[in-house]
Amino acid sequence: MKKIVTILILLLSILFLLDLNKDAAAEQRYNNYVVYLDAGHGGYDGGASTRDGAQEKDLNLAISLYLRNYLESVGIKVLMIRDTDISLTDGSERTKKRSDMMNRIKLIRESDADLFISIHMNAFPSGRWYGSQTFYNSQDPNNKLIAEAIQKNLKDTLKNTYRNAKPSNNLFILKYSEKVGALVEAGFLSNSREGRLLQKPIYQQKVAYAIFLGIIEYFDQTTNSYS
Predict the structure, then answer these.
(1) Which of 31, 57, 72, 153 could form a disulfide with 214 if both were Cys (CB 3.0 to 4.6 A apart)?
(2) Residues 6+ apart with CB under 8 A from 23
(3) What is the pTM of this model?
(4) pLDDT, tens digit, for every residue of 42-56?
């Protein structure tokens, strides 16, 4: 009996060491990458809201913070446009939205980020629409690669969206950031069911994890481009 226990302890120790080696290898594999996360809105700008008053700015930030944790767990350096409830405006009342956007873009442009991800929520007057969707600027083929990788993993992980990654060359942050990137609309706050889901931490973590898987898939696809 003592011999069996000794063998079991030895096997568990080996498995533990293998897991440590696997984690170390993953961290080493991705530790040269830098990702900039933009939690949309913030401060004076609440963004869209659910019928019960949950604000987009808070939900965007929650998902971004979960995503940061996932990325850092494999050694990726993460930069945050914001990690608290602030805006980046330095303009007048009339120009504060544009000022906020330009400051976000400036931070991304001047960074050493390999990739940026902007997190948002959707809302329409009608409550019938639902589903997360990833948008990209079609001027750079890598934008399409990252958007499609994220969208595929959103579909596979959440299992509640039929949408595909979509080109959008007019979204301000995608048009002017001059970095590879994508904008994720995590769902519709105007849809009562999805609005409730997006307020739940467990669902926010699932959304963040799907985006994380898409980022990892993208980096794996483009390894030679970054080596």
Answers:
(1) 153
(2) none
(3) 0.87
(4) 999 999 999 999 999
